[in-house]
Write a structure and sequence with these properties.
three-stranded antiparallel sheet, 3 strands, mainly alpha
């Protein structure tokens, strides 16, 4: 029993913290610095062995901040690339970026990465300890840059890649956000009318003592349903949305079905497909240009595309390429790419400029997404106005029909 308990204790990892210390060396010179350790006593012991008389040790505290977003990582990559190109040492660059970060969570993350580098880890190994923020593609490109001695160049290329991917994601989100937000507002307004406004009209209509038109009876019946079961409607809607996202995140078959349906949507499907192809070709172009072997590069490409249909297709492409099939033929066999992409890929393979051709394909589809989003925005406005007009206008007409009928009878 004691042995089992002891072995369990050994397996529990100690949590390290960052300590800021101040002291004097043997000559009396005041020194200050930072050290990552599991406790104050370890910091004191380490510094004492270095001949430093410690006067003060404080644990570094990070203010509570939001989570680290993809935008934060993109901004950090751009800042790090710029400073390294300017000749700023790596650790100093981390200090500058970390202290200048407005998000406390980013500062904490960069401090942990910097500490790992200080203790002897390579930069890509330090990044790999945080897979939630630095994916395989990011780490592989950094590793390629370190091995080739062109880390500043690859960080710049990585920053360009992340900026373009972030831009295309934001365009898709903005195209989807507008109609969804309008539909939500329309539902709330309709619910308010059904629950609070129509019951008032119902009491007035009851006093008429006459038969009501069919549209009015339908609206009143719908209002009665809302008043009686409003908690079931709103509760069921909320639970349904929560359950959908809960199971969607945890079920790969469900993700496949949803991603396949999304690509077949009448208006948005074509835009999402173009955005996915743009991200796929941009990712492969960036990794191939960095010197990452094609089969290895395809490992990261599928996940970066953001769609499970293309993720599965990429696995098939990778399998075909690993057995000697050319990339263009493997992509054609996957049956998810338009002929223009296949032709450009084939030309790139024949000319030895595959990364350049894939980059041009990505530029083309990104421009197509820009135009499609602009067209969607101008198209959605009149469509939404028509939907709202029919919905709200239909309710108003149904409510006023009895008043018109009563006026005709009186006249």
């Amino acid at each position: 029993m004691a042995t089992a308990a002891k072995s369990r204790t050994k397996n529990v990892p100690f949590k390290e913290s960052t300590f800021i210390w101040e002291g004097k060396d043997k000559t009396g010179k005041i020194l200050r610095g930072e050290m990552r350790a599991v406790g104050v006593s370890l910091v004191q012991t380490t510094l004492r062995r270095q001949g430093i008389a410690v006067s003060k040790i404080t644990k570094q505290k990070f203010a509570r901040g939001g989570s680290v977003t993809e935008k934060d990582i993109t901004l950090f990559t751009r800042q790090l690339a710029t400073m390294m190109k300017a000749g700023v040492p790596l650790l100093q660059a981390f200090d500058i970026v970390g202290k200048g970060a407005s998000n406390a969570a980013v500062g904490k993350l960069l401090n942990e990465v910097k500490t790992d580098v200080e203790t002897g880890s390579s930069l890509n190994q330090a990044f790999r300890k945080h897979p939630l923020y630095f994916d395989a593609l990011f780490c592989n490109l950094v590793e390629a840059g370190e091995q080739a001695g062109i880390l500043d160049t690859l960080l710049d290329r990585l920053a360009n890649y992340k900026e373009k991917i972030l831009a295309i994601k934001s365009k898709i989100k903005s195209a989807m956000f507008y109609p969804i937000s309008i539909l939500i507002v329309a539902f709330i307004i309709t619910a308010v009318i059904m629950i609070f406004v129509i019951p008032q009209f119902k009491s007035v209509f009851t006093s008429f003592g006459a038969d009501l038109p069919a549209p009015t009876l339908f609206v009143i019946a719908l209002s009665d349903f809302f008043v009686k079961y409003w908690y079931l409607i709103f509760g069921g809607l909320g639970i349904g949305i929560y359950a959908f996202f809960y199971f969607w995140k945890r079920s790969l078959p469900m993700q496949m079905i949803i991603d396949r349906l999304v690509l077949k949507l009448p208006i948005f499907g074509a835009v999402i497909r173009k955005a996915t192809i743009a991200r796929w070709t941009r990712t492969l172009s960036t990794m191939f240009a960095a010197g990452v072997p094609l089969v290895e590069a395809l490992e990261s490409v599928g996940g970066a595309a953001g769609n499970n249909v293309y993720k599965v297709a990429t696995r098939q492409i990778q399998s075909d390429v690993s057995t000697g099939t050319s990339l263009s033929v493997a992509m054609q066999n996957a049956n998810v790419f338009p002929s223009m992409v296949l032709q450009m890929t084939a030309i790139g393979e024949e000319s030895g400029q595959l990364d350049s051709m894939l980059s041009k394909v990505s530029d083309f589809f990104e421009a197509e997404v820009d135009d499609a989003v602009a067209s969607l925005t101008s198209l959605m406005e009149p469509l939404i106005m028509v939907v709202l007009g029919v919905l709200i206008g239909g309710i108003v007409i149904a409510l006023y029909l009895p008043i018109f009928k009563l006026g005709a009878v009186v006249g």
